[in-house]
Amino acid sequence: MILTILFVMLAEILIFLPSIGNFRRNWLAERLSAAQIAALAVEAAPNNKIPETLRKELLDQAQVYSVAVKHNNQRHLILRSPMPALKVDVYDLRNQNFFSLIWDAIKVYIQPENTMISVLGKPAMSKVEFVEVLMVQAPLKKAMISFALNILGLSILISIITAALVYLTLNYLLVRPIGLLTENMMSFSENPEDPDKKIIPSGRSDEIGTVENELLSMQTDLSTMLAQKTRLANLGAAISKVNHDLRNMLGTAQLVSDRLSNVNDPTVQRVTPRLVRSIDRAIKLCSDTLQYGKSETQAPSRTHFKLRPLIEEVMEELGLPRRGLDVKINIEDEAVVYGDHDLLYRVFSNLIRNSAQAIEAEDYPADSAAKEKLNGSAHSGDQSPKVVISVMPEGNKLVIDIIDNGPGLPAAARAHLFEAFKGSYRKGGSGLGLAIAAEIIAAHKGQIDCLEGEKGAHFRVQLPQNGKAD
Ligand SMILES: Nc1ncnc2c1ncn2[C@@H]1O[C@H](COP(=O)(O)OP(=O)(O)OP(=O)(O)O)[C@@H](O)[C@H]1O
Ligand SMILES: [Mg+2]
Q1: Domain ranges of the chain
Q2: Which of 319, 347, 397, 470 is the most buried (most CB within 10 A)?
Q3: Around ion ligand 2, which residues have CB less than 5 A away?
Q4: Alpha-helical regions (H) of 319-453
Q5: Whose CA is nearest to atom 8 of ligand 1?
Q6: What's this model's pTM, rounded to 2 decimal places?
Q7: Architecture field, domain 302-464
């Protein structure tokens, strides 16, 4: 509202300047006309003589001290009264332009009231060349001040009316709808799942209407997603509980199946190893699922430790190297890594197990003759199945490569490799191993990638190594 008042006042000033120039010119032109009529009255008298009282009255009427008229190329001083001897400013109304009119008008406000001015001009519809009057500026200044005050009052009135109208319009068209939008956003963010908190579009066709529609569709998407996430979270929690109990039950089954292997029945001896393996896999699936559920909140507690013993520990757990599967560790004894020991153990255990499983699955069925044959053809020449683990520092990162010369990743597996339950293309696989590894590495602010290799699989883990070795 204040801005509108200011802008209207500014516009009024721009209008005021030319109009005050005009006002002054018209006022002076009126004086000239009155003076000329007085001069005509004098010229009509015999010998141009008029009584003193009449002369004074004529000059007072025209508000001038003296009147001179030029016609027939001669200037006649027709009326004159005693006047103070002061400096006189001369203005010729016949040749004035837009700017000089404005400047002369401004001068009236600045100069003192008793300034004497001599004004020349040609009254409309008269035969004389010019009429010249001598006058004091006071009455002109008075008239101009009252004119300016009138305009000021009018401007204030117009400003206030305009500002009020603009204010009301803006308020109705913009401020109120934006306020409602803000209010809705705030109440929605308090409880995004409540369908009643969504905005109800007003149906406007302008930008505000578009914003309302976009907000509604965003809110709808968001609340659907939230509802879905809540359902999934509940489901996950339920599965975790089921898993937990299932793992305990499977533990009991494992104990019983271990005993079974002591029974001397040939049929029992034949099926027990398969039973044990299945139960082992089931237990691993339960543990992995449980750990996946937990790992999101688990922050790594990092220390400096030697990498080689960790890898060796993993190999021991996996029973590597074993017949038909070689492992090469290109890691110096002194190589130190900065990270969470147990979490990184799980990462390398998953990666190396994947390689071993891939290589051994390729050799299936596992009778040694077929194995030799496959080795010969699949691993071109003398390359025996092998996993190579190597490490090298790169800037302030440690780059750890796990490379095998197995069958490589199926193309379909690459698409969702690091997503839980999606990446598995292995018989009996749950698709959690790489997802867990990726999450752990992300928690270390590192990176895990599956690089394109000519043959086999190449996984690269990069771990930032800020901090000094102990
Ligand atoms: N070294 C590898 N060589 C060939 N394929 C691999 C290799 N590593 C992973 N893969 C492929 O990627 C898939 C996903 O691996 P991931 O470890 O996530 O799951 P999984 O091994 O199937 O199950 P889990 O590890 O949970 O028991 C595997 O099923 C396999 O198809
Ligand atoms: Mg795996």
Answers
A1: 2-159, 194-297, 302-464
A2: 347
A3: 354, 433
A4: 341-362, 368-378, 411-415, 433-443
A5: 354
A6: 0.51
A7: 2-Layer Sandwich (3.30)
